Amino acid sequence: MALRAGDHSQAAMTGVKEKVLTLDTMNSSIRRVEYAVRGPIVLRALELEQELRQGVKKPFTEVIRANIGDAQAMGQKPITFLRQVLALCAHPDLLNSPNFPEDAKRRAEHILRACGGHSLGAYSISSGIQLIREDVARYIQQRDGGISADPDNIFLSTGASNAIVTVLKLLVAGEGRTRSGVLIPIPQYPLYSAALAELNAVQVDYYLDEERVWALDVAELRRALRQAREHCRPCALCVINPGNPTGQVQTRECIEAVIRFAFEERLFLLADEVYQDNVYAEGSQFHSFKKVLTEMGSPYAEQQELASFHSVSKGYMGECGFRGGYVEVVNMDPAVQQQMRKLMSVRLCPPVPGQVLLDVVVSPPAPSDPSFAQFQAEKQAVLAELAAKAKLTEQVFNESPGIHCNPVQGAMYSFPRMQLPPRAVQRAQELGLAPDMFFCMSLLEETGICVVPGSGFGQREGTYHFRMTILPPMEKLRPLLEKLSQFHAKFTQEYS
Ligand SMILES: Cc1ncc(COP(=O)(O)O)c(C=O)c1O
Hints:
Layout: H1 8-14, H2 28-31, H3 40-53, E1 64-65, H4 80-90, H5 102-114, H6 130-143, E2 154-158, H7 159-171, E3 180-186, H8 191-198, E4 202-207, H9 218-228, E5 233-240, H10 252-264, E6 268-272, H11 289-295, H12 300-303, E7 306-311, E8 324-330, H13 334-346, H14 352-362, H15 372-398, E9 403-404, E10 413-414, E11 417-418, H16 422-431, H17 435-447, E12 449-450, E13 452-453, E14 464-469, H18 474-494
Parallel strand pairs: 1-12, 3-4, 3-5, 5-6, 6-7
Antiparallel strand pairs: 2-8, 7-8, 9-11, 10-14, 11-14, 13-14
Helix pairs in contact: 3-17, 4-5, 4-14, 6-14, 7-8, 15-18, 16-17, 17-18
Bound molecules: pyridoxal-5'-phosphate.
Residues 69, 159-161, 189, 191, 240, 244, 272, 274, 311, 313, 320, 325 line the site of pyridoxal-5'-phosphate.
């Protein structure tokens, strides 16, 4: 056990030295870090699972983890072609097996030729295997209607998370009133608040407009920036599109307005586009910041600085565990880009299996390839099911009095707003909990449903939300949504 400062004399007597590393001496920035998606509610969910295994009686038989965007953990099957190529790369003896299609074998051989010692077990260069960065560049070019991408501006990463933190590290500088500030949406994905706390940067909140399906309003950006300039030096603006936890897909007009704003105010843009394949709502379409920025022409195209992030964790792939992702930087100062390369080289390289998966994602089987039909069928099936689950979630929640859910236009989550009676709010305060944490904890204890309170993502004062993924299997989703709604009704009644 750690000894406290006052225990010095006792330590001297017993000969036990005080720990060098204690809560008092450790990096205080890390103590400030919070990450709701894996916070107290999830720790309790783990305990409950353990208790169920030990035969403790509960009002439910399983814990349903609807707290995290981890598709395969919720039963989604991996895409066959991705795993075939990966398996062949990991164990090249399988190249002689008749059980793998020819195009998967060709692809694996192609990738292995680009690996050190022709093995996945070798480090790659720090920015990622050249061949894969070239394939990523081709993918971006095709996605963006022919706008070119330079492999030298692409850095493969350990999931998108690692690339995001790397770019934030480059941005953060200064002390006191000149400390860097980064504008982030509220509600936000808590990697941003956590990374900014760790880096001792200033988190500058701008609120998305819930009444207008979580629209991003430039007037609100202006307000946030004006206020922030009184106490820090805002240098970057982050946009998550499609949104997590809010599920909105930004319009092209909105993106143009954000780019103009960032340019006028000299802000580096971070575009978190990991859900670019997850767009469901009719009339919604994904527009990449890179494409919009380039099509806006001068001066934006050749001056506005941008980092755009993507990942193999989301989309139809859901390959979170392999930690594959990339960042493309646009108009970055070449000297800074050199520093970024150096920073990444300290960590040696992103996991090579994750790089391989990324390669297959960005260059899937072509129509003439034997695996094309199966690949397309599997991909479309996953996306169609997610679209149906997005719709169902919105529908069931909106049938429940006291719950309002905006359309889930994209990404993998609903973020419904719920009414909580004043007595429940008061009870939560007595317990020292945020009211929505109190609700989510009670929900978990009674039903086994694990969702994350809105307070973990940020929300307007006096409003209460929770984030629930749309990932549970279709046959479980409706009963789950109904159970959650019924619990909300019961909870409301109990505290009315
Ligand atoms: C908006 C957003 N950005 C980044 C990430 C990180 O993803 P990765 O698994 O690629 O690190 C997530 C994961 O949920 C996310 O939701």
